[in-house]
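subagent[fold] <- orchestrator: predict structure for attached chain, return tokens only, no commentary.
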Amino acid sequence: MAEDHVVQNSENPIIAFIGWGGLGIFALWFAYQVGAPLVMQERWADKGKVAIELVKNQKPTGGDTLYDLIRAYSLKAKDKNIFVGEFSWSAIQKDGPDYDVKLLWTEGSQKRVAIWQTNLQSNQITPKNKGEASTLATHVTSEPQLQKAS
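subagent[fold] -> orchestrator:
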């Protein structure tokens, strides 16, 4: 006749707990390592308008905002029959709260561009292209001295 063989579980419960617990801890650590950057990126996504406003509202001369300085310069240029216009602001997210903000405009017949790096978490603004972005405040507080646009 057939004998019934019963195999008893000889696994130590402490070893099983450590094994499954270690697997659980690894799974949580892995989810954090993969998920945290995605959540951080998502938290700062679609904040381009905020980055643009941060640049526009900076006060490089301590008084008026950059946006107001640009508008005043444009009006002074118009009074001298110098075309300054076609302003276009854009922002591209680089990583998390870091955005590049770009200002394109036409001055006379010359196309110009200024780019700033912004950090929305610290509200830090840094000129990216040292020419236009770093000298724009000085430029727009001076008198327009361009040839007339044709």
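orchestrator: received. Logging for downstream: The mean pLDDT is 83. The longest helix spans residues 13-44.
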